[in-house]
Amino acid sequence: MNSFASDLLVPCAQTFLGIPAARQPTGGAVAIFGAAHGTPYARATGDSATVTGPDAVRRAITAASLDIEHWDFDFDGPLLDDGKLRVLDLGNVMTSHDDAPANRHNIEAVTQGVLAAKAVPILIGGDDSVAIPFMRAFEGGEDLHILQVDAHIDWRDDIGGERFGYSSTMRRASELACVSSMTQVGIRAVGSARRQEVETARAWGSHIVTISEGRRIGIREVADMLPRDRRLLIHIDCDAMDPSICPGVNALSPGGFTFGEMTNLIGEALRGRRLAGFSIVEFQPNADINGMTATIVGRLVSHVLGHLARAA
């Protein structure tokens, strides 16, 4: 078996849905891990609440789900389809607000180890910058199509000289040789993008689907835009969803996807496609209300697992 950087992980007290904790991934399994910190901007201050983000998701979804063996009516059977899918919780990547280079190294190394073990990585963040090293770990592998679900396109080359912050995630992804195409869905309102970022994204070939366009043509039609001849990497920013259901985010943006729209998009995107990996980021527990966002994040991850179990 390939060596795995287990020393870069910290076990969690409560695993996701009570699934087994593991020190290393195994082939054919899904490996869940958290990363609370990526690359903060210079103006950002440390927030101790952010450290608990992935663990807040674990606690909320485990409490809401009662027992993973119980009937899941979204899938007309137990979530993991009576054990057809093996899921492991690796804990949290060692990160710190004050050491961005180490954060990037650790996230990339852990993800590479999961991929080397022939497992599917699922990352729970952390701000959107944690996805940059997560995506970098796929470099050198098969071609990928990225489905980004977000309120913002994240194509800034830098902000204040920082090229690895949360406004640059998809710009950095576009520079990877393994990323051959991307679809950006749910885009709305005003973010960090200027005319030049929009033009650069479109010139590269990114297919930008605004929230209004997505609703006009329908979720199934949006998913039909995704190619089937390459692996799919799904990346979700929590502000893709409406703040009425996901208040625990950095940037509130009214008019986002409902929970039903999100689960439909995940299901349609996975239909007949090979999932390379999944990341969900920008959950800020200090801004959450009654654990709403934590539960939603956990349930979206659960939907990914439910679909994978039925494709196994």
Q: For the record, what is the CATH homologous superfamily label?
A: Ureohydrolase domain
Helix content range of the residues, please?
Answer: 25-40%
Strand order of the largest sheet: 1-5-2-6-11-10-7-8-9
The residue-averaged pLDDT reads 95
Low-confidence stretches: none
Q: Tell me the Rg in angstroms.
A: 18 Å
The CATH topology assignment is Arginase, Chain A
The N- to C-terminal Cα distance equals 22 Å
Order of helices and strands: EEHEEEHEHEHEHEHHEHEH
Class by alpha and beta content: alpha/beta
CATH architectural grouping: 3-Layer(aba) Sandwich
The major β-sheet equals: 9 strands, mixed
What is the strand content? 15-25%
Q: What can you see in these coordinates?
A:
- By secondary structure, the protein is an alpha/beta fold.
- It has one domain: Arginase, Chain A.
- The chain has nine helices and eleven strands.
- It has helices at residues 53-65, 100-116, 131-136, 169-174, 195-204, 211-217, 219-224, 259-270, 292-311, and strands at 9-10, 30-35, 71-72, 77-78, 87-93, 120-125, 144-149, 179-187, 207-210, 231-237, 275-281.
- The strands form two sheets. It has a nine-stranded mixed β-sheet with strand order 1-5-2-6-11-10-7-8-9, with helices on both faces.
- Helix 1 (53-65) packs across helix 9 and helix 8 runs parallel beside helix 9.
